[in-house]
Amino acid sequence: MRKHIIIGVTGASGSIYALRLIRALLVDGHRVSVIFSKFGRYIMQDEAGLSAGDDFLEQLVEKYGLSVRNGELAEFKIGDLAAPLASGSVRVDGMAIVPCSMKTLSSIAHGTSASLIERSADVTLKEARPLILVPRETPFNLIHMKNMLAAGEAGAHIVPAMPAFYQKPESFEDLGDFIAGRVLNLLGIEQNLFTPWGEEQE
Ligand SMILES: Cc1cc2nc3c(=O)[nH]c(=O)nc-3n(C[C@H](O)[C@H](O)[C@H](O)COP(=O)(O)O)c2cc1C
Question: Is residue 197 part of a domain?
């Protein structure tokens, strides 16, 4: 069944995780509402050479092929607190913040709802929908860890950007797919981005 998933992209390193997740959702025919923070845009441009904006889908087509057109992509402005996503009345099946900066993690843990990413995450929690946070920082300080605990206690799933190596990754894409696949599992979407441990390797 086609799902509607919100993806927040914030200013932590690891935009490959967001790109592989968005690619997988679109190829599978899902509806993706994406919101970039200012530094989410900056880092995606720096790390992956893609720029958010009107032709983001075109850039995805160029990078990943025509199959990303199977789904539907809409981008919302981070400051647009009047966007439909800001209301719990709009049907959404879940949200992932990938990668999730320590700043956005803190805002979610404290319920500030000051941007569309923060508000959408707040709505996702209050509507008891799956919220997946993919934090990336190293090392963590105690504040980071306490914020992860608070967000986890409020119902968020914490999926740190920690790809495994038992999959024998051969590329950045493989590393990205491992995390994207784990996020899809938590969103209740079947994934074929990596072979689960113990199953036949191709
Ligand atoms: C190149 C670069 C890399 C960064 N990497 C991280 C990171 O991995 N984790 C993190 O929490 N913040 C990182 N930051 C800092 C955040 O971008 C900054 O705290 C920003 O305020 C986050 O805001 P946002 O959550 O609204 O995107 C990085 C910043 C830059 C410029």
Answer: no
